[in-house]
Design brief:
Layout: H1 2-31, E1 41-54, E2 57-68, E3 82-87, H2 102-110, E4 118-126, E5 130-137
Parallel strand pairs: 3-5
Antiparallel strand pairs: 1-2, 1-4, 2-3, 4-5
Length: about 140
């Protein structure tokens, strides 16, 4: 009788330990947040579509023609890939778009491009917001 009770105790003990380990592994995998490394790409792209509501509220669908990056940062922009990107404006202390910032002026100018134009952009890819345009080099077409 003692042997049977000992055997049952051992089985129950191992079963409960394996369940705890399994739950712990599931909890660990759920708590790990997927991130994207800091990245910046310098691209030349053809504008496919412009969805413009205002100079500060627009989205571009573009085809990447050329792509480069700094040596230290990864380049996620792939040539011949179509992406949808929106501007990332610099915000001032009042939590408003800084109208005196040259980069913001360039991004506002970018809102006026038309389908078919070639543009030179600085972009980054983020986990939550997708592709963001950091800067626009005017007269970027060759």
């Amino acid at each position: 009788m003692k042997i049977i009770l000992s055997f049952l105790f051992i089985v129950v003990f191992f079963f409960s330990c394996s369940k705890k380990t399994e739950l712990t592994e599931q909890q660990k995998s759920k708590s790990q947040v997927t991130t994207i490394k800091e990245n910046i790409s310098y691209i030349s792209a053809k504008v496919l579509e412009v969805n413009r509501k205002s100079p500060t509220n627009y989205v571009l669908k573009i085809l990447i023609l050329e792509s480069n990056s700094d040596e230290n940062l990864p380049n996620f922009a792939v040539v011949n890939e179509e992406i949808i990107a929106k501007p990332r404006f610099i915000i001032n202390d009042k939590n408003e778009i800084a109208n005196d910032d040259s980069r913001n002026l360039n991004l506002k100018e970018l809102s006026k491009v038309k389908s078919g134009e070639i543009v030179k952009l600085t972009v980054t890819r983020t986990l939550n917001e997708g592709w963001l345009i950091l800067d626009y080099q005017k007269n970027g077409a060759n």
